[in-house]
Amino acid sequence: MNRPNHALTRNVTGYGADTHWQKKFGSKEVTALRTTRLEGVTMSRSLKCVLVVCGLLCIPELALGQPPTGTWKVNGNGHEGELVIKSVAGLKVEGTIYGQPFVGAYDEKTMRLNFLRIQDPKDPTTSQAWKGYLFQNVGETEVKYTLAGTFESFGEGGGAPRLEFGWFAQITKPKE
Fold this sequence. Notes:
mainly beta; eight-stranded antiparallel barrel; four-stranded antiparallel beta sheet; 1 helix; 12 strands
């Protein structure tokens, strides 16, 4: 079967973009070029991505740091209540969840909170291991913080005959 020797060429020049495609059938090569110009400087797409990410990391509002202390609204496997973070000192986190104390750790690098809820100190099967990740939504005047993750129940403390359950908690603070 003979294919026609077609050539497709597209040159686009304009504000911020240069695109050049060549497509030839048969034994001819296919080439493409895509670059972006920024005030006389030609940048590749990956370099643009690196610059955007570096710019976002420099915005202080996006640096999460530690989870805020206070009373969070929590939903663990459909059970609504309060998560109270009393203190965050270094890695150590202390507070209550559903009115019961917990101790745990928070890693700023991964934004991960781990804590152990012990419902009955005399019965280890009532323990639950919680882990969640912190993120935020920044509004005009306030910041909504969210922790979301899973918890494992070592007995029947999760409300269903399985071991792992989902949870999330939210708190809103004034923007600083």
